[in-house]
Amino acid sequence: MATRPVEIGPAGLRTARAIEHLRLVRSLTQHQLAARCTALGRPMSNTALSRTERAHRRCDVDDLVAIATALGVPPMALLLPLPSVSSNDRRGC
């Protein structure tokens, strides 16, 4: 009997969004970020990274640490909700 994969929960969805957000803020392509993870000793393809960002692939703790290190942030930064921007904070836009 085949088992269904475990759905990605709220923390996983936040992590996926945070990875993509920080990658874009740092002007990195998925290929570049995946290469950084690989250079850190955690082999990762850009396809795996893309699936992680789209929440089609679970991000295990080893991936989380490698991605955070490659982005220059502590792993906890990928787990916490992204700060929202209120209309008062959008001065000059």
Q: Which structural class best describes the helix and strand composition?
A: mainly alpha
Secondary structure tally, helices: 5
Mean pLDDT metric = 89
Question: What's the N-to-C terminus distance?
Answer: 55 Å
Number of strands: 0
Overall outline: globular
Helix content: 40-55%
Alpha carbon gyration radius: 15 Å
Largest sheet: none
- Please state roughly what percent of the residues sit in beta strands, choosing from under 5%, 5-15%, 15-25%, 25-35%, 35-45% or over 45%: under 5%
Tell me the series of helices and strands, N- to C-terminal: HHHHH
Residue runs with pLDDT of under 50 for 5 or more positions: 86-93
Organism: Streptomyces tricolor
InterPro entries: Cro/C1-type_HTH, Lambda_DNA-bd_dom_sf
Domain HTH cro/C1-type: 19-79
Protein name: Helix-turn-helix domain-containing protein
Question: What features would you describe in this structure?
Answer:
It is a single chain. By secondary structure, the protein is mainly alpha-helical. It is 53% helix and 0% strand. The chain is built from 5 helices and no strands. Helix 2 crosses helix 4. The longest helix has 16 residues, at 10-25. It starts with 9 loop residues before the first helix and ends in a 14-residue tail after the last helix. Residues 86-93 have low confidence and may be disordered. InterPro entries: Cro/C1-type_HTH (IPR001387), Lambda_DNA-bd_dom_sf (IPR010982). This is Helix-turn-helix domain-containing protein. Residues 19-79 form the HTH cro/C1-type domain.
